[in-house]
Amino acid sequence: MASPDLSPANSGPHSNTVLRTESLSVFYGDSQALSDITIAIPQNQITALIGPSGCGKSTLLRCFNRMNDLIAGLRIEGQIWFHEHDLMDSAVDVVAVRRRIGMVFQKPNPFPKSIYNNIAWGAKINGFLGDMDELVERCLRRAALWDEVKDKLDKSGEQLSGGQQQRLCIARTLAVEPEVILMDEPCSALDPISTAAVEDLMEDLKADYTIVIVTHNMQQARRVSDMTACLMLDANVSQGRRVGVVAEFSPTDKLFTNPTDPRTEAYITGRIG
């Protein structure tokens, strides 16, 4: 069976929405991690996922490019849409999904290769036939790293500083031409100067990409995001344990200045967390 075309729809009720979930629940074996998540990620904006530890932020993020498929015993109920395409359709090419929806992890993880080949490797295996030198330079420029590394492209990416490594990983993601970039705590291991550089980069990139970021840093969410979803732990009476739910999803300014859910207000004011 041919894999469905994942191209964006030009019209329709969700034409400005890139990713959305409908009644999404996630289970690890018998343990439920997320319950009834319905959320819509707008195009060319930065959406932040915040909430206390263990509420399922990273689990939700990894659902968007089916990284959770790699976890044994994981089960998903509900729907995940990329534009108007059902990502849980058995005919979907998961490799194509992960190419269109790239991921940057919490800890910088450059390949044990040269700076140049960190960028070129993914492009090569995805069949890029253009000018590789131009692609490498363009991606490093987009990641605000070119001026710092242009004279040492043959050096190992592992020799860069932590902040430079994270921007290299972002450049590597850009090289396969994604539409969406998922970021899981991308600044948690970085110093304040490097964090500011990555935040500035995100603001620049959203003109061309849709970004979803998980962060424990509420000030970071407030600085960089356009929309914020606050996830909380809610009692699951049937299981006798707590599961992640979306307490509130709204424009960032509104969520932080006038939250509608008392759980959101308690979290952002530090009364719970």
Description of the molecule:
There is one protein chain. It contains 10 helices and 10 strands. The protein is an alpha/beta fold and 273 residues long. It has one domain (17-268): 3-Layer(aba) Sandwich (Rossmann fold), CATH 3.40.50.
Highlighted features:
globular; about 270 residues; Rossmann fold; four-stranded antiparallel sheet; 10 helices; 10 strands; about 30% helix; single chain; alpha/beta; six-stranded mixed sheet
CATH architecture: 3-Layer(aba) Sandwich
Q: Give the domain tally.
A: 1
According to CATH, what is the topology? Rossmann fold
- Tell me the total number of β-strands: 10
Q: Name the strands of the widest sheet in spatial order.
A: 6-7-8-3-9-10
User: For the record, what is the CATH homologous superfamily label?
Assistant: P-loop containing nucleotide triphosphate hydrolases
Structural class: alpha/beta
What would you call the shape? globular
- Characterize the main sheet: 6 strands, mixed
Strand content: 25-35%
**Rg result:** 19 Å
Q: Give the helix proportion (percent range).
A: 25-40%
